[in-house]
Amino acid sequence: MSVLVLVETEVAGQGEPGLSVVAEETLTFARGLPGDAVDAVLVGHVGLPSERVLAQCREHGVRTLFVSTDAQLERYAARAWARVVDAGLQGSGAAYLIGGGTPRGNEVLAHVASFHDVPMAANVVQIVQSDPLEVERQVVGGAVLERIGLGGELAVASVAGHAVAPVPSAEPTQTQVEQVAVQLTPADLAAQVRRSEVREAGDTSALTGASVVVGVGRGVGGADRFTAAEALAERLGGAVGVSRVVTSLGWRPHHEQVGQTGSRISPDLYLACGISGAIQHWAGCASSRTIIAINTDDEAPMVTKAQYAVIGDMHEVLPALLEELG
Amino acid sequence: MTDVLVCVKRVPDASGEVVLTEAGDSVDGRYAGYTMSAHEECALEIAVGIAGESDGEVTVLSLGEEDCVEQLRAAVAVGAHAAVRIDALADAFGPGDVAAAIASAVREKEAGGASYDLVLLGNDAADTGDHQVGIRLAHLLERPVVAGALTVTVAEGRAEVRADTATGTEVYELPLPAVATVLEGGVQPRYPSISGRMRAKKTPIEVLEPGVEPRGNGRLGLRVLPPPDSQVEVLGQGEGAAARLAQVLRELGVVR
């Protein structure tokens, strides 16, 4: 009985692709599941894995890494990627299939669960007990945890971001690479990305990976009043994130939204300016290492939940801070 | 003419404090009220736009007890033409059950002459966040599916779906009929007009049987996370706090 982990890659800078942080978190989580081995299946990367990916797999105790070299998989098609994962399941005989709680992870896992007509638990945060398997997962935007039983021949689950810290295995392995062949049908490729449009440089596309995020809420007061927040984000080498009300008012684009229906972020610092801190927003920023709130209301939830706070108008505090930072 | 089916769910409004029922097995929305998931409001807006361009119709569907009629009428008020309720105890239905019940309803309606070129759902419900109903439905109906759509347009029997990624936009083209799950953010839901509200009051709600025996969602219990103890250190008031704030940023190592 083994665990199969769906892993995704990311390219940092100009370097060769490596496993994403989420993939390393998921591998760490996988080692807590019952089973005699952890295998992985690589998606989002056509061809043989890079040496960096292999080194990470060895560090995380991966026994076999299943890959596909089928060029039809180059452009994302969730159902086709799910066929590769399914081939990995057949190769490993795993009883548990897990992946990151990312848009890709949840989508591909849902296809695999559909193939087998088995349950799937999204955004799991911890294992409650192993036999029979019970897990806890985030519901209601993370404000509530649901305990759920995952019985049956195959348990499918995605792991919520930052549910565990990525830690190398105490027992590194010699990872074997196994190529899987998939017979893709037209139906598998019917919903495939036709083209990708890369956003212009200089925007906040790096929000989810930023080490500092300057969050802006309704308190900013208008679409033309982001200058100081943008300047601070640039000064700190970070990105601007906004609350849902800011995007609803049309002041900023949706891809900058932090929260339950936006991006979930985990920066070293989240500087929340003029944000009250509704549950839906908190769901997106709660994983920040340090939160500093700037708010005129000293009883706002964001202030009471933060580690540090400044009570005042962001339009007075931010310019003064920028001057201090030089 | 493009006809669209939009699936919506009655969910507790969790914008304030989240309270569980006495039994601890579901979220109690009696005080905060109930609403439609934000993703589904956007799915409805997309559907009304698509149908409006081609003289098509929007049918809105919800699985639940009598009270989910409130969300169905809200959907009619902003432009849906017809409403269907699958009569069922929603809490007893897991995501696979919901998908099977919707598939059953689609087959029943299409056998009766309806034809849904597109089925739109929210990417995930605001309460259970399952991320799978739309995909399971597409498998059951044997139709292509894209998750995370921000916009959907239809032309010449194909749907163009645009979805956000961390670095830009991905564009899909699907043959119809198809399924898409919608994320909030690509469109702005409209407000109901007075005439829309009036029409919503009069629109009959068709009731269907679920057509499946639910297997359940495996839920064993819920618990609300306790709020963290407030240990906030107030650095000061207004611009006078800037020096101390800058010092903290340096201590945290985030100043370049």
TrEMBL record, chain A:
Cofactor note: Binds 1 FAD per dimer.
Cofactor dependency: FAD
Xref: SMART domains: ETF (SM00893)
Domain called Electron transfer flavoprotein alpha/beta-subunit N-terminal: residue spans: 8-193
Keyword Cytoplasm found: no
Pfam families tied to this protein: ETF, ETF_alpha
Annotated residues for binding of FAD: 218, 243-244, 257-261, 274-281, 295
Keywords for the protein's UniProt record, in alphabetical order: Electron transport, FAD, Flavoprotein, Transport
Protein task: The electron transfer flavoprotein serves as a specific electron acceptor for other dehydrogenases. It transfers the electrons to the main respiratory chain via ETF-ubiquinone oxidoreductase (ETF dehydrogenase).
Family: Belongs to the ETF alpha-subunit/FixB family.
Quaternary assembly: Heterodimer of an alpha and a beta subunit.
Protein name, UniProt field: Electron transfer flavoprotein subunit alpha/FixB family protein
Species for this entry: Ornithinimicrobium pratense
UniProtKB/TrEMBL annotation, chain B:
Electron transfer flavoprotein alpha/beta-subunit N-terminal domain mapped to chain residues: 25-217
InterPro entries: ETF_a/b_N, ETF_b, Rossmann-like_a/b/a_fold
Cofactor: FAD
SUPFAM superfamilies: Adenine nucleotide alpha hydrolases-like
Origin: domain of life: Bacteria
Molecular function (Gene Ontology), one example: electron transfer activity
A matching Pfam family: ETF
Subunit structure, as described in the record: Heterodimer of an alpha and a beta subunit.
Biological role: The electron transfer flavoprotein serves as a specific electron acceptor for other dehydrogenases. It transfers the electrons to the main respiratory chain via ETF-ubiquinone oxidoreductase (ETF dehydrogenase).
The protein's name in its UniProt record: Electron transfer flavoprotein subunit beta/FixA family protein
Organism, scientific name: Ornithinimicrobium pratense
Lineage of the species this protein comes from: Bacteria, Bacillati, Actinomycetota, Actinomycetes, Micrococcales
